[in-house]
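Why should sequence recovery work at all? Because a backbone constrains its sequence more than one might expect. Tight turns favour small or flexible residues, buried strands favour hydrophobic ones, and helices have their own preferences. The token representation captures these environments compactly. In the example below, the structure is given first.
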């Protein structure tokens, strides 16, 4: 009897989650090169709500894919691209606001990932997203050896970011003073030891772990491909469920020195798909 009840519960939950997935919000991006259908994630609600809002307002209608890099990604969402003249540089436009980052470790830059563009860290340390610009990853496949080398570089970047975050806090002035004294003495060994100590403190304070690709990421990047160097840096808020051939067609377009396609590739309109 207990086994039967467990079986019924399992069947119910299976049906529930299948129905939930089937009802996931999807948007059709209709371009002059074909249609792309993206599914928006529920656990990045700010980006999902904003994207749907802009679609309903017809914000993306007639905008160009203004930045295209083969084996990397295609980017759109700049309102200045609607009536842009040939050879004009694009990519600075938006709706006048940015969005707080919703960077989730379970959403990474696999082939077909939909993510928000943003300004670089030096002017945007919180990694806030553009209010409208997005990109879709075409990517490429990596070997395990390439991922291991990339992982080491990303670990170094992550370590530096965490140390800087810790040291720039007002309450950590004593640590900054200590680092300055070591630098004034040109004590390289002392600086390295101090940085290691600060890094360990920062890991504990911010409840972080050293960066490492998960087994799932390694499997996907070596078989399907993507852009792993962007992981943890940008908000991924959806993925392509249909039309990757169109993404490939756009990504393979000939471009100028600003990575803008020589022939305009335009979003005709976007439509929310109702299940």
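From this structural description, the recovered sequence reads:
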């Amino acid at each position: 009897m207990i086994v039967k009840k467990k079986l019924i519960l399992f069947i119910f939950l299976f049906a529930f989650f299948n129905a939930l997935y089937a009802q996931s919000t999807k948007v059709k991006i209709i371009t002059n090169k074909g249609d792309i259908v993206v599914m928006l994630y529920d656990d990045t609600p700010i980006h999902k709500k904003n994207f749907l809002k802009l679609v309903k307002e017809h914000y993306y209608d007639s905008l160009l894919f203004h930045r295209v890099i083969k084996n990397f990604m295609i980017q759109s969402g700049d309102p200045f691209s609607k009536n842009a003249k040939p050879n004009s540089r694009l990519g600075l436009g938006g709706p006048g606001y940015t969005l707080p980052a919703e960077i989730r470790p379970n959403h990474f830059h696999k082939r077909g990932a939909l993510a928000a563009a943003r300004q670089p860290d030096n002017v945007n340390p919180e990694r806030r997203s553009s209010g409208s610009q997005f990109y879709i990853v075409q990517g490429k496949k990596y070997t395990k050896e390439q991922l291991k080398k990339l992982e080491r570089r990303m670990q170094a970047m992550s370590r530096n970011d965490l140390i800087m975050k810790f040291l720039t806090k007002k309450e950590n002035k004593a640590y900054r003073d200590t680092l300055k004294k070591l630098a004034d003495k040109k004590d390289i060994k002392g600086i390295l030891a101090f940085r290691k100590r600060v890094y360990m403190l920062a890991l504990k304070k911010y409840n972080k772990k050293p960066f490492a690709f998960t087994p799932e990421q390694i499997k996907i990047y070596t078989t399907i491909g993507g852009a792993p160097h962007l992981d943890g840096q940008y908000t991924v808020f959806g993925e392509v469920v249909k039309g990757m051939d169109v993404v490939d067609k756009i990504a393979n377009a000939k471009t100028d020195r600003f990575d803008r396609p020589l022939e305009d590739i335009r979003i005709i309109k976007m439509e929310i798909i109702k299940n």
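A few observations help interpret the result. Residues 145-205 form one domain.
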